[in-house]
Amino acid sequence: METESFVLKPNRDLLDPNFEGYKLNLDKIAIHSKHVEEGVLQAPESSSNYSYQQVRLYALHNHLWPDPWAPDQSFYFSATGSVCQVGIGPALPAAVRSVPVLQLPASESPRPEPTHPSLSFASDRLALVSDGRGRLHLVDTGDRALSQPWQIQFSDSLLEGRGFVLQHSVLDAAGRLHVLAGHVAEGSAVPEWREQHSDDGAFVNLLTWFTFVKGGAAWRLERLRQAATASTVHYAALDAAGQALCVAADRLEVVLAKVERGQVWPELLPGDGRGEQIVDPELAGEMAQRLAHLTSDAENPKPDAADAYNVAELEDCDDFPEASAALLRLDGDTHAPTHQTSLDSHQYVLTARLAAAEPPGALRATRRGRLLWQPRSGTDDGIVTTSAR
Predict the structure, then answer these.
(1) Fewest CB atoms within 10 Å of the CB: 37, 278, 351, 375?
(2) What is the C-alpha separation between 165 and 46, in angstroms, rounded?
């Protein structure tokens, strides 16, 4: 069955046709600070982290994690391995208090690819903690306004011990927990990517979507899905229902792992003959050797033949750009894009979360102001709606 895909368009009613630009506001902004004597926990610098994707992952990192369910509360990782809560209340207008709520378990062994630790809140009582060394902790926080100690309910080393950064998490209406994590790996280290790409030296951004279910008092991993790209991921989030992945990237490919490696798939979905089969480079080499006697070493064996087209007649519009930025909504079951829009002419600004129970939106700059693409669930067609601020 063919999946219908919608092209997203901005809501023009929210845009100001007379917008002439922004003006500098000199109003003072309240700033609260606290000196952390022991410093913050972060991944050590490494000479092996030299790719553009790794630089973005390490440099564009905020060590302060806000709580969407409590705007006056934030968290950070201290250098001693503690998750500390910092808050600003009405009774403390000029002071910031800090309370440790969780001590990270000691790492079993040094990991070759660590990242900065990260934190994500799936609900008002459930949090995800990544130690940056490949281990994920599911934590019961209780009422976070009380600054009580957190309790680890599940802990496991995922992704073969590679460090990863938490991007988003969702607790759906059925009680399933969806976690989105990102990390950078060499393309040659990802078998599904290596089979389809000849550039072994390329680095790729891998987005991993974990789904956990709870049986009694124990959580277990039920499903794992991945999407990969060798270019920049500007934005990634799961919809509130845990049914789709929304991504803004220059290029994105869904990675499917075969149960039997080396097996040839005549089609991706049974009964659906669309798409293109990409042959493994090693298999292609073997086929070329077998057919060598049918080929010619001459670049143009018929130089007098007329060209199929005139190169001089090609224009710039005929050349497809190497990288095209787009916002996509990928269905979690079919892996097909259900909604998409081009972002080539819009510069990414930031990610904004307008409501605790909703996924963050992607803010882009346009000539008529800032345009916010906000994923929304619960509508009849599951469309990704847009708005402007």
Answers:
(1) 37
(2) 17
Q: What is the DSSP string of 67-97?
A: ETTEEEEEEEEBTTSEEEEEE--TT-SS--E
| Region of residue 385 (left: phi > 0; alpha: psi -120 to 50; beta: else) | beta
Amino acid at 194: R
* CA–CA distance, 135 with 163 (Å, rounded to integer): 8
Number of other residues whose CB lies within 10 A of the CB of residue 66: 15
Using the structure block, give the residue that is written with the tokens 């968290």: 75
Q: Helix, strand or coil for residue 360?
A: coil
Would you call 181 helix, strand, or coil by DSSP? strand
Q: φ and ψ at 91, to 5 degrees?
A: -85, -5
Q: How far is CA 102 from CA 83, 86, 234, 332, in A?
A: 5, 13, 30, 33
pLDDT along the chain (389 residues), means of 10: 72 77 81 84 74 79 91 91 82 65 81 83 96 92 92 90 90 94 82 67 86 91 89 88 87 61 63 62 65 61 55 44 71 86 76 88 78 73 46
Assign residue 204 a region: left if phi > 0, alpha if psi is -120 to 50, beta otherwise? beta
3 state SS of 135:
strand
CB 96 within 8 A of CB 72: no
Dig out the tokens for 355 from the structure: 């409501």
Q: What is the C-alpha separation between 296 and 304, in angstroms, rounded?
A: 17
Half-sphere CA count of 9, side-chain side, radius 13 A? 2
The C-alpha atoms of residue 9 and residue 11 are separated, in whole angstroms, by 7
SS3 379: coil
315-351 burial: b if 16+ Cβ within 10 Å, else e: eeeeeeeeeebbbbbbbbeebbbbbbbebeebebeeb
CA geometry: angle at 233 spanning 84 and 184, to 5°?
Answer: 70
Bridge partners of 4, per DSSP, are none
**Residue 311 burial (CB < 10 Å; 0-12/13-18/19+)?**
exposed
Place of tokens 């990270």: 104
Structure tokens at 329: 């909504």
